[in-house]
Amino acid sequence: MAESVLTEYMHTPKKPRLEKSSGESNSTSTRKQLRKYDPYDDEYIRQYILYYYQFHKSEGFVIDWDKLDFRFETRPIMDPYRIAAYSTNDELIRGVACRAIAQHNADTVSVSSSGSRIEFVDHVSASYRWCAGILYWVTFWARDLASSNPEPKLYQANVRLCGQTFCEIYIFRLKPTDEEIAAVQVDPPPPLYDDDPELPTILFTATGPGSGYMSIPEVSFTRIPAEVEPVSSP
């Protein structure tokens, strides 16, 4: 049984390109190969806690990927690794954002004669998750030409795409402020791997108040040994 506390990750993550409101983007980010999850590795559990709280507080949009080097369910779209064979990451993210905008504009017209006329300016960041299609979280600059103040603003869209025609929007909004994100209350993670008798169950307990960026609480974890020995491959 092992126990540890998340302490060293409470800081404000980088916010690349948030000041940029126009022009072509030139991503030069690099990313090391991600490691496979390991429930016996304390560092993996610490990073999982950070990922869990940042994901739930920001609804998936603001995650400090520079501090994560394990594979989690959601992953960043970040050079030099492409997730599309025939387009760059910038082209892919731009395409996702534009499809979400087009769908949102069409949806608002269907419920209001005025609707919105949001126009894409530039993307900031994106992550994805495989599902029935691909689920994306995209942050981007855009302007609403139907607004009395059509200056570029930061928007966020959580959208599922499948093929060339299917587009389902779950979230489309102006980016919340850091204070609004930090104010979101999130319960400690539920037990991890409790449904797999060959893996240890990880239990989490909040042990201190929230602090730092996003006001993430101190969290301890306890590892309960696996119920059965895993079957080794021949």
Automatic annotation (TrEMBL):
Supply the name of the protein: Uncharacterized protein
Chain spans, region Disordered: 1-33
Name its species.
Arabidopsis lyrata subsp. lyrata (Lyre-leaved rock-cress)
